[in-house]
Amino acid sequence: MELYIDTAxxxxxxxxxxxxxxxxxxTNPKIMSNEKGGYSFKEKILEIIExxxxxxxxxxxxxxxxxxxxxAKIYASWNENIVIKIPMGIEGLKAVRQLEKNEGVxxxxxxxxxxxxAILAALSGTSYASxxxxxxxxxxxxxxxxxxxxxxxxxxxxxxxxxxxxxxRTILDVNKAFLAGADIVTVPFPILKKMTQNPKTEETIKEFxxxxxxxxxxxxxxxxxxxxxxxxxxxxxxxx
Length: 240
Hints:
The chain has helices spanning about 10-15, 30-35, 40-50, 65-75, 90-105, 115-125, 135-140, 145-155, 170-180, 190-195, 200-215, 230-240, and strands spanning about 1-5, 20-25, 55-60, 80-85, 105-110, 130, 160-165, 185. The model has no long low-confidence stretch (mean pLDDT about 95). With about 240 residues, the protein is an alpha/beta fold. The chain is built from twelve helices and eight strands. About 50% of the residues lie in helices and about 15% in strands. The protein has an eight-stranded parallel beta barrel with strand order 1-2-3-4-5-6-7-8, surrounded by eight helices. It is elongated. The longest helix has 19 residues, at about 200-215. It folds into two domains: about 1-195, Aldolase class I (TIM Barrel, Alpha-Beta Barrel), CATH 3.20.20; about 200-240, no CATH class.
């Protein structure tokens, strides 16, 4: 079970990484467009890579086989931790096979909406397959069933493709995706922040700390003195 952050914002990535629970990042053209102002795409991706030091998905925008392969090779040459996002489809599957088999480039088939697409992605040799939770729900289908069915098939057939679930819109989406069998859930930073919060947690901590302060003020609790390193050394020497 792993959490990735679904963003290209360096400050959000730094903050999320400081929590110690993020092990990768995903981007796409829409996410990259959220970074306002002129910037070097390569420098931005390398900045994210330097922060994450783990897999970072970068998506191609070419739509034909040759274009996707050539674009993918350029991005992959920047850093070994870059995983190339390839769109689901016939041209995409061809690109995945060529990149994984002939070029040694790890791929992530993206925008998967059904178990049948996930099967094709895995059989093409992709390292990762990304199911889009929210967008499947938008179509009126149950994303949990798609994830559960795909995960079961992968395990039963001993397929090594890792299942990523993206298009996350609520905390409940995260929980359900993992329970359904996702290996990785990639989450926007606002949702990650909400995952840390619960009114009852805050109420409980305030209650505990309030009681503790009251006990100290009444002199009912004596805290241990802080021992300086020098005093600690002398104490140990005397004991010896």
